[in-house]
Amino acid sequence: MAFELKKEGFRLKDIFVVVDIPEATYHYHVKNFGKEDTDTELKTRITHLFKKFHERYGYKRITEELKKLGYSINHKKVYRIMREIGLKCVKFMRKSRRYNSYKGNVGKVAKNRLSRRFSTPIPLQKLVTDITEFKCLSEEKLYLNPILDLYNGEVITFEIKKRPTLDLVVEPLKKAIGIIKKHATYRTTIHSDQGWHYQHNQWVSTLQAHDVCQSMSRKATCADNSPAENFFGILKQEMYYGEKLVSYEELKERIEEYIYWYNNERSKAKLAGLSPVEYRTQSS
């Protein structure tokens, strides 16, 4: 088969791109052609799940998804099968320069009320927020400011802009306050770093006007806001690092789609294998 493709002027690597299968999968099937395979249906299911979750899931998460579908299976078997058919999560961690909005004391610096107590059984009791930066084509940049609920890790609101203006943080805050007023059963605390946005009078006065407590990390202490940092790391690992730079508008669309997927579909071990939204709706 490989000889015939080459003879007609086609390369196998080009064919793999068109039909969207890993090269290892092709060689596996060539090697095992004619042999009886008792795991055919399972391999098909694993391949479907791998593609469904945008190739972001490794064997452990695939195992959890199979269990949700009723399979009684060990993660070691899933690992073996994924190796056999050439399915591998190629997303990877990479350090990047952290966006820093600190400009000294330009307003009010709040106490660290959370003190790294990030867990809570109460929705909307503890929120965290931060800003991160992305590079785009043509030397453009994109800035993302999400607000996350520590109850389930859900991104309850966010804003994306080309510049790190005050509106980047104030607009999602106003949306979050609308959610808090409607659904919160306990006084809310929102935690951030000491960036100038969060020291600004408009941010502080908006919190005070709606009886929301303000909390801040200590200067140059990333661990004080690790949930926000962890979210940025996961987001960039799964949909940004290793990809070609794209325009601001295309990257904005990808991030919006990712956040929806993260909230509604991406399972988390500490949420009993549920997504943040599934956990919230099943617990209510």
UniProtKB/TrEMBL annotation:
Q: Which GO terms describe its molecular function?
A: nucleic acid binding
Q: Which InterPro entries match?
A: HTH-like_dom (IPR025948), Integrase_cat-core (IPR001584), RNaseH-like_sf (IPR012337), RNaseH_sf (IPR036397), Transpos_IS3 (IPR048020), Transposase_IS3/IS150/IS904 (IPR050900)
**Domain annotation Integrase catalytic: ranges:** 117-284
Q: What is the top-level taxon of the source organism? A: Bacteria
Q: Which SUPFAM superfamilies does the record match to this protein?
A: Ribonuclease H-like (SSF53098)
List where this protein forms a coiled coil: none
Q: Which NCBIfam families match?
A: transpos_IS3 (NF033516)
Role noted for this protein? Involved in the transposition of the insertion sequence.
- For this entry, the protein name equals Transposase InsO and inactivated derivatives
